[in-house]
Amino acid sequence: MLVSNSDLVTLQEHTGKLLIASETLQTWLESSSGDYIQFTNEATLAELRHYWTQYVSADVSGKSKIDVNVRDGMSKRSKEIGTSSFAHGLRSAGPFWLSGLEVLGHTYRRYWETGVAGGNTADCTQLGQKSHVNPMFAVSSAPLGEFAVHYGSEPLLGFHLAETFRKLYYCGEKKALAAQSDRLVEAAKTQFTDWCHAFSAIVRSRRVCVQLFSGEAVALCHQLQLGIGDARFYTKPWKLQPLRLDGHASQNESRWPSLDRFDVIDTSNLGDH
After folding, report:
1. The pairing of beta strand 210-212 with beta strand 2-3
2. Own/partner pairs, 128-131, CB within 8 angstroms, 24+ separation
3. What mean pLDDT is predicted for residues 33-61?
4. Is the pLDDT of residue 175 over 60?
5. Which of 29, 59, 77, 129 is the most exposed place for a label (fewest CB within 10 A)?
6. 13: Cβ contacts below 8 Å, ≥ 6 apart
7. Residue 155 CA from chain centroid, whole number
8. 208: alpha, beta or left, given left = phi > 0 and alpha = psi -120 to 50?
């Protein structure tokens, strides 16, 4: 939730490039990202541009409204957690989940205390006393700019940490909690780097297309069954915007398959509810 000054500059510079490239669906298609990231409709593009604009313009300087909201929200959640242990990260440990109870509870608590994964030493040292709130965590659809980061957020949840736990607990490398947490974060960063390299290789081979949709998942499912004709549903509850699949990805089947054919569909946490 917190980033260094150089990370903030990089984020806002890149977001500025995205805004330039996404003025229309056509300009996006002609951009360097248009070959592998596409939009199911113009409404999704417009909504993303709305958030990208806020990322660029957000005032995250010390004591700004955004800065105070996020830091107060972190502090409140950290106090709620206290010294409790939470088991929702145990899936990352695989068969070594029992060994991971203590340290994964520690990484969760430290994340909410420090704003960086596991409160790891390297990132905390880099931030020092000059940390900035990450605009991607500060800007949301919540009313009045309220703090809206989910209470279960934990950066290590999506990584495979079983091998690291095997070394820590079964190869004589067990260390203090803080050192264990640092090892887990190092492993996660290495995996993330490897995933980025692998995805870049697939992009260069032109074997992947990511199609984005922002709206209500079940409405999209119904609309996909009907095809790309007249809209029969609304994009999301409490909105009067018809759900039309009018993006380039749905109109150019010679280049990419139609929207009702896909290998993977990610619905965020819909399956949990």
Report:
1. unpaired
2. 130/4, 130/5, 131/2, 131/3, 131/4
3. 89
4. yes
5. 129
6. none
7. 9
8. beta
